[in-house]
Amino acid sequence: MSTTSCSNFRTEPGTVRPTRVSTLVWVALAAAPVGWSIGRIVDAASGALPPVPWILPLLLVFLAVVLFVGARTVRGWIEERRYDSRMDALRAARLLALGKAAAVFGAAVAGAYVGLGVLALDSLAVPAGRNRVVLSALVAVVAVVVSIAGLRLERACMVPPDDDDEQDADGARHA
């Protein structure tokens, strides 16, 4: 790796950088106006805001649980240096990709449903409007939990360096 001022932006081939929380915040901030705009388009076309499915928070909770369990499994495998048939390096790499994707997905869903919830604030006087606001808030909160679970899974895939391995800026390398 070069020692120029741009070395912060370069990685060695085969390495993956950890997802930054600031990136997830920007994804959520970019998704909020998209959710608001989609709500406005559906409202203009149909005369009603789009419904928020009640099953969505349950599915997101299930996804978060799967991600947390995966993080626990991978962390145990890496810390104990177990290389058996249940967990191999390819599976850990796939779980790393799943964690990164889930973190970004959770941020995008949270932002979109915050935008939809803000749009539904105008209709708090009616029960359907209150229901949309409450469910939008619940989906946004659970989507943040999915992002946290994805980050945790991603961080669980970090392999501590061996004595002869080179370290990156974080002091660890990814599986």
Summarize the structure.
65% of the residues lie in helices and 2% in strands.
What is the number of E strands?
2
> What does the largest sheet look like?
2 strands, antiparallel
Percentage of residues in strands: under 5%
Mean pLDDT: 83
Q: What's the overall geometry?
A: elongated
Number of helices: 4
Number of domains: 1
SS-based structural class? mainly alpha
User: How far apart are the first and last residues' alpha carbons, in Å?
Assistant: 19 Å
Fraction of residues in helix: 55-70%
**Low-pLDDT ranges:** 1-9
What Rg do the Cα atoms give?
A: 20 Å
Provide the succession of SSEs. HHHHEE
Give the strand order, joined by hyphens, for the main sheet: 1-2
Give a description of the structure.
The chain is mostly helical and 175 residues long. It has one domain. The chain has 4 helices and 2 strands. Strands 1-2 form a two-stranded antiparallel ribbon. Helix 2 packs parallel to helix 4 and helix 3 runs antiparallel to helix 4. It is elongated and about 60 Å long. The protein starts with 20 loop residues before the first helix and ends with a strand.
